[in-house]
Design brief:
Shape of chain A: elongated
CATH superfamily of the largest domain in chain A: Tetracycline Repressor, domain 2
Mean pLDDT of chain A: 91
Order of helices and strands of chain A: HHHHHHHHHHH
Largest sheet of chain A: none
CATH topology of the largest domain in chain A: Tetracycline Repressor, domain 2
Number of domains of chain A: 2
Oligomer: homodimer
CATH class of the largest domain in chain A: Mainly Alpha
Structural class of chain A: mainly alpha
Chain lengths: 205, 205
DNA sequence: CTTATGCCGTACCGTACGGTACGGTACGGC
DNA sequence: GCCGTACCGTACCGTACGGTACGGCATAAG
């Protein structure tokens, strides 16, 4: 690992990106058991390169997590002129995005990986790029809505965690444990809408 | 594995229970990496015995999951004469119990284990004794409340999943990923009460 | 006393995998 | 042409671990 850990996904060379993409594919197809030898074959690279670039296996896995995180776009909303309609819209988008990501093969594989190496830095990396990033991203929206008196709540954190619970429910843990659920776009949108409706019932002014 | 898988935790001999308890302790203390050799040392037994009784490693792990599940008591409530107070009380107990269990070392260790072996039967075993058992246990309560017009909802499943989301929120995934949260009895009760209050706001008649 | 059974302890085997070493090749700078 | 750098491919090493074999001891049945 060492210093490389700090490097964000954006600073990867094209070839490094290729390798990390191969790692993601392999991680999904192998059911989470990525081996260095397997990646060498899948990415047509040498072990020497792998170890030169990423230090060791854990460094590679962390780079893979950050690489994946660097791909998700953060949609920007104008917080200054927000009204009830655009606010609800933004919440619905957020909920759909979140459910879409959490139910994706890649997210499931990366979360499984991090969870099964709980002592290492992998868990932290996933938390930082997942749950915490979500909070940082959505709290300004909540605060803006509160300022406009669209919402009433005591603490950002509590409101966000309620929103999170209403959106995610049992979906993530079931998927992680191997429950076979099909999550179509339509189903995601339906669940997202229900979650936001309930959230607004609880917190709307 | 084979047939042993079906045996529930109750049919274990005292010595077998000792070994499974040792497996639980080892699972927690080793951070989820239970090895057969390690268990032999920890439980003062022989590998031969382990393999005779449990078939292979997976059989042992499934037996361990079922053994743990067999320990949790299921409190009984009289569904016939339920009123708003006793219903809210039952929900609060359920929520506290659930948070208490999910935040325990053993639950975290077993869920990590099952998640990191998603292709095997372990995930199923944890789902069956965890999330699904919860549903089976709480739905009669919800139905009874609905019958007494204490609650309004369309589907048992939807109502339960909302309840689940409000109670669990981000607690389980954060713990699984290694987030260091201290969950005291007081904090658990506080979060449980909030969840039930919100649930009743959404579904109470 | 004798035999069978159940279990402990240890030694052992095979393999998968992380990590290292090194020869070979392509390419850019000088 | 010559060297350095970057990378591929392969062979190799060490070890951890799942699983097997077997000898030894204790207890119970006959």
């Amino acid at each position: 690992m060492a210093i490389k850990t700090i490097i964000s996904g954006h600073e990867m060379s094209p070839r490094q990106g290729e390798i990390l993409d191969a790692a993601l594919v392999l991680l999904v197809s192998s059911g989470g058991n990525l081996t260095m030898g397997g990646l060498v074959k899948a990415a047509n690279c040498s072990k020497e390169t792998l170890y030169n670039w990423f230090g060791d296996r854990e460094g590679l896995l962390i780079a893979t997590i950050q690489w994946q995180a660097s791909k998700v776009r953060e949609p920007k909303i104008d917080l200054k002129q927000i009204d009830i309609a655009s606010f609800e819209n933004a919440l619905n988008s957020f909920a759909s995005d979140l459910l879409g990501v959490l139910s994706s093969d890649i997210s499931v594989a990366l979360n499984r990986l991090a969870i099964s190496h709980a002592n290492s830095e992998l868990g932290n990396a996933v938390l930082e790029n997942g749950r915490y990033a979500m909070g940082r991203r959505i709290k300004p929206l909540l605060r803006a809505a509160k300022k406009k008196s669209l919402l009433t709540y005591k603490s950002d954190e509590e409101a966000f965690r309620t929103l999170f619970g209403l959106i995610v429910r049992d979906v993530q843990i079931r998927l992680l444990l191997g429950d076979e659920i099909k999550y179509s776009k339509a189903k995601i949108n339906k669940e997202a809408r229900l979650a936001i409706e309930q959230f607004l019932t609880l917190y709307q002014n």
